[in-house]
């Protein structure tokens, strides 16, 4: 789920950068890219994966 959110943020950052849209400092393409990288790092670390295999017993 975090990887999907990161992909959406990367796409929005790309659109802002490609269209040369003037935004305020909070929604700058670099800031969105850094938030996307943070979400991608959390996804790779295993946080927010959703289903967990722990607790399954036969």
From TrEMBL:
This is DUF4383 domain-containing protein. The chain crosses the membrane at residues 34-53. Keywords: Membrane, Transmembrane, Transmembrane helix. It comes from the Bacteria. The lineage of its organism: Bacteria, Bacillati, Actinomycetota, Actinomycetes, Kitasatosporales.
């Amino acid at each position: 789920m975090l990887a999907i959110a990161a992909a959406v943020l990367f796409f929005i950052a790309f659109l802002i950068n490609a269209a040369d849209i003037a935004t305020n400092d909070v929604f700058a393409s670099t800031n969105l890219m850094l938030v996307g990288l943070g979400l991608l790092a959390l996804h790779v670390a295993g946080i927010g994966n959703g289903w967990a295999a722990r607790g399954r017993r036969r």
